[in-house]
């Protein structure tokens, strides 16, 4: 009888571990590529099914931006998952100040890959990939990935 109780307790513990792990699902990855270097990152902010930016119940992770070294004049490719591409996304180069009207943004992207050549006039560039709420560029962001492009 004691062996049976231990078996049941062990199975229950294993099942609870699986259930808790499933709650912490990963966010889609965004990958940046330049030359032979590539980096990827999970989202710093991401709204899963049933969450919304308006309700402010999305997952938020305070992490440092992912760094990619880029040779001057080299292209940077941005590759997003199908989920992000289907929702629509933009690439944003935030301005040096806190005023969002000074940010530079690409048009809304619907493909999973976009390439551009960064201009390093004043050193490293911050870059954000923002997933849109059903392609609506004026709606709050439902996914955000942060990178820094550093000239080599």
Q: What report would you give on this structure?
A:
This protein is of the alpha+beta class. 18% of the residues lie in helices and 34% in strands. The protein is built from 2 helices and 11 strands; from the N terminus they run αββββββαβββββ. The strands form 2 sheets. Strands 3, 4, 5, 7, 8, 10 and 11 form a 7-stranded mixed beta sheet that branches. Strands 2-1-6-9 form a 4-stranded antiparallel beta sheet. The protein is globular and about 40 Å long. The chain starts with a helix and ends with a strand.
Helical percent range?
A: 10-25%
Task: Average the pLDDT over all residues and give the rounded result.
Answer: 84
Sheet with most strands: 7 strands, mixed
Distance linking N and C termini: 68 Å
What letter string, H or E per element, gives the SSE order?
Answer: HEEEEEEHEEEEE
The number of distinct helices, counting runs of at least 4 residues, comes to 2
Radius of gyration: 20 Å
**Uncertain stretches of 5 or more adjacent residues:** 9-22
Principal-axes shape call: globular
Hey, roughly how much beta strand do the residues contain? 25-35%
Structural class comes to: alpha+beta
According to DSSP, the number of beta strands is 11
Please outline the helices and strands.
Blueprint: H1 2-23, E1 30-34, E2 37-41, E3 45-46, E4 59-60, E5 66-70, E6 76-80, H2 82-87, E7 89-93, E8 104-105, E9 113-116, E10 125-131, E11 143-151
Parallel strand pairs: 5-11
Antiparallel strand pairs: 1-2, 1-6, 3-4, 3-11, 6-9, 7-8, 7-10, 10-11
